[in-house]
Amino acid sequence: MSILKEFDLDIPYINSGTPEDYEANWKQKRIQFRDEIRCVASLVERSFEQYKTSDSWKVLIEVVDVITDPGVKDFSGVCRVQVQFHVDTFFSKNDEEKKEATLDLMRRGIYSIILAKGWDSVPFERALEIAKNQNLINEWYWKKPLVSSNRKYKASLYIVHEVKGIKGILIVANKNNEEILRVEAFRDRPNEWAYLRFLGKLEWSTHNEVVLLDKRNNVVGKATVNKPSDLDILNKDMR
User: Fold this and answer.
1) CB neighbour list of residue 93: distance below 8 Å, 6 or more residues apart
2) Alpha-carbon distance 144 to 138, whole Å?
């Protein structure tokens, strides 16, 4: 048994061209496409409940101008299907249109696989609906808030994942959960292969400074509370 947990889209190079042709005319387009669909694809992934299958841990939807390999194929646990779509039109769309196009391509590919393999459609429909109801906005907190040593502050990392980029924002709140500081910690390509290296751990270096460390324990960003916030002063005066 396998646990299905990943969804991805790709525009494979199916021309019988040379490596030089791929490098010159397809590689950058493919990288851009794989980056720009991740905003919606990862939102659907996070909304998806674990689903047990006999052999698949990932769904891969290949977006092609002309379907050359019909049907559903399985390769080492990757369940692959082709969906017809004029790829160049994707790049002419604005960001919101790209989100909608990505969701539609995912829906078409997923339903083709469900029909072919006899999977239960409910968890897939639920994940797609959750993403749609969130207006395809992919923003989330990474892990639980971290409390400072003096118990005065809580720090969180907030991820904002858009079509063309992703950024991590350090947010510090007081003990009443009122936000007092917001600092951008990193900005990168909107693809897990690029930005996951930043997500090591949060750590309070002092009672009023929190740092984000990458997976090699290097400091990515930090937020420092230099003085009591106006809200803290006001709350103190009212006590």
Assistant:
1) 101
2) 18
Cα→Cα distances 190→39, 186, 197, 219, 224, Å: 7, 12, 13, 20, 27
When comparing pLDDT for 208 and 19, which is higher?
Answer: 208
Contact call for residues 163 and 140 (beta carbons, < 8 A): no
Query: Is the separation of the CB atoms in 60 and 79 below 8 Å?
Result: yes
Is residue 41 within 8 Å of residue 102, measured between CB atoms? yes
Rounded CA gap, 134 and 143, in Å?
20
Angstrom distance (rounded) from CA 147 to CA 131 = 31
Q: What are phi and psi of 109, to 5 degrees?
A: -65, -45
- In which residue are the tokens 């048994």 written? 1
Neighbour tally for 211: CB within 10 Å = 21
Q: What is the pLDDT of residues 124-165, one digit of tens each?
A: 999 999 999 999 999 999 999 999 999 999 999 999 999 999
Backbone angles phi, psi at 45, to 5 degrees: -55, -45
